[in-house]
Amino acid sequence: MNEKQIRVRAYTEGPVEVRQGDDGRRKIVGYAVRWGLLSVPIYGVYREKFERGAFAAALVDRQSDIYATWQHDVRETLGRSPNTLTVSEDENGLRYEIDPPSWAERHLESIERGDVRGSSFTFIAQLAEYDWESDRDYVIRTVKRADLFEVAPVTNPAYPQSTAGVRSESEVAEYIRSERARREQAQRDYLARQQALRDVSIKT
User: Is the pTM of this model over 0.85?
Assistant: First the structure.
């Protein structure tokens, strides 16, 4: 399984909003990630969350390469770090602040009206851990380190929410299915060996 593929995630928690900055300009502010917030089930197999600090290295290494778009449309780029996009980690999550161009005024109105209320982001997981025990229905995938490429205000934050993530997500799901089957078979084999040893003990 290749962990290092570009994925798209979106959240409705912590809605995106418009705020007035100290310079009087209106800015788009939101959280692309909330630490520890579980996703909805992905492919019906696993749920995902991000560990605090997951993007710390990316914010240093990619400080001039992170961009903000409207609805993931690169033709409507709203900002780019470090000049018109600020992305930072705080105790709540991965926060972004966009200084949008004048032509984006119509988008600010959509946010203020509540028509657009979700945030989305594009990333590559560099390090992830899997919890097979805590949830009886879903494996919990914790992303501990990731590269960040894009943040975006979005109308419909489905999860995963675009074709950019479909192939890679299915690969993760297939890995989890096969690993779960392997673990279950190993457990059955162990129980069978234990039973066989008990049977031998009884006979002797």
Answer: no
